[in-house]
């Protein structure tokens, strides 16, 4: 028995926001050897298989930056 409120057994997937989708895909596929699991082209969203886990790449819209407040406010609405 642990003192923690929950016990984490694993992480199903992680989402990374990227500026350059093509560059990110090349890195994760060609360098790290991950494979494409699913693509949602309309949303510029790519899901890659990483062992038993998934890595999702979400491409930032043109002109948006990682430090834009609207990204963080959107993320808070999903919590």
Describe the overall structure.
- The protein is globular, with a radius of gyration of 15 Å.
- It has a four-stranded mixed beta sheet with strand order 1-4-3-2, covered by helices on one side.
- It has helices at 21-31, 69-78; strands at residues 13-18, 35-40, 45-50, 53-59.
- Helix content is 27%, strand content 32%.
- It is built from two helices and four strands, in the order E-H-E-E-E-H.
- The longest helix has 11 residues, at 21-31.
- 4% of the residues are buried.
- The two termini are 28 Å apart.
- The protein has 79 residues and is of the alpha+beta class.
Helix and strand topology:
Blueprint: E1 13-18, H1 21-31, E2 35-40, E3 45-50, E4 53-59, H2 69-78
Parallel strand pairs: 1-4
Antiparallel strand pairs: 2-3, 3-4
Helix-strand pattern, N to C?
EHEEEH
For the secondary structure, the number of strands is: 4
Write out the strand line-up for the largest beta sheet, numbering strands in chain order. Answer: 1-4-3-2
Q: How far is the N terminus from the C terminus?
A: 28 Å
Q: Treating each run of at least 4 consecutive H or I residues as one helix, how many helices?
A: 2
| Mean of pLDDT | 85
Sheet with most strands: 4 strands, mixed
């Amino acid at each position: 028995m642990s003192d923690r409120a929950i016990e984490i057994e694993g992480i199903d997937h992680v989402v990374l926001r990227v500026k350059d989708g093509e560059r990110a895909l090349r890195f994760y596929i060609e360098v790290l050897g991950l494979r494409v699991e699913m693509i949602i082209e309309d949303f510029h969203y790519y899901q890659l298989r990483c062992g038993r886990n998934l890595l999702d790449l979400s491409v930032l819209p043109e002109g948006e930056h990682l430090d834009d407040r609207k990204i963080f406010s959107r993320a808070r609405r999903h919590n």
